[in-house]
Amino acid sequence: MASGTLSAIGANGEMVFLGLVYKGVPMSPDLFSNFVNLSNQYRSQHGLPQGTYSGINRKAVSAQAVQVTFHVDFNDGIGPRRGSVRLDSWGPRAMAVNGSNIPEHLADEENSMMNVVIASFRQNEQMMAQLRQGAMNRVQSDIARSKAQNEAINARREASNAAFDQHTSKLDAQSGANDAHNDNIDRSSKIFQDYTLDRSVVRDTENGERGTVTNSYADSLVRGNPDRFQLVPNQDLIKGKDY
Fold this sequence. Notes:
Blueprint: E1 6-9, E2 15-23, H1 31-45, E3 52-62, E4 65-73, E5 81-89, E6 94-103, H2 104-119, H3 125-149, H4 176-196, E7 199-204, E8 210-214, H5 215-224, E9 229-231
Antiparallel strand pairs: 1-2, 2-6, 3-4, 4-5, 5-6, 7-8, 7-9
Helix pairs in contact: 3-5
């Protein structure tokens, strides 16, 4: 689905899927229903029985994201499973998915190990940073040339996908460390979302306002008045304003 996706099945039927991105398919406002439909669609296409989901417990992580714990039976002879998934909406036709599930009779025994697996998931941040910096350099170069040539630029920035939240069966167990972890995920999700949808954050130096707009519109603002409008680098994104 996206660069850096991890999907694995354990010896006892344990499943983990990190960094998945579904694009180009209609999405309803109910993110978990989208997840169930897409999962069962995949299973059907691969000759697998449909999953039966129950015991759903939801918690909003942000305005665009939800964490859900659930029980599911894939009707594959293994029996009920205990699962958790984080779903991030990227608009009406895109969604990011990070989740896992463990057979119910092994969940208590293997949950700590699953946490270790999830926590170890990393994308190549050095490579992603280089790609993002290269894209920013191209944007600045195009802006300089546009003063003389009045040509449009197309800036693309690469961003890493969100690492999965700490796997937990108690959604109400929040701490300062977990809040910081969720903020990092929200920031990474914002960066990757803007890259995927060709968007940039622009600030107005005269009145302090800032907003997310398409790359083409961002380019026209900066080219038209570079002293007033500036592109906001990823490291300067502000929680509550930009994501």
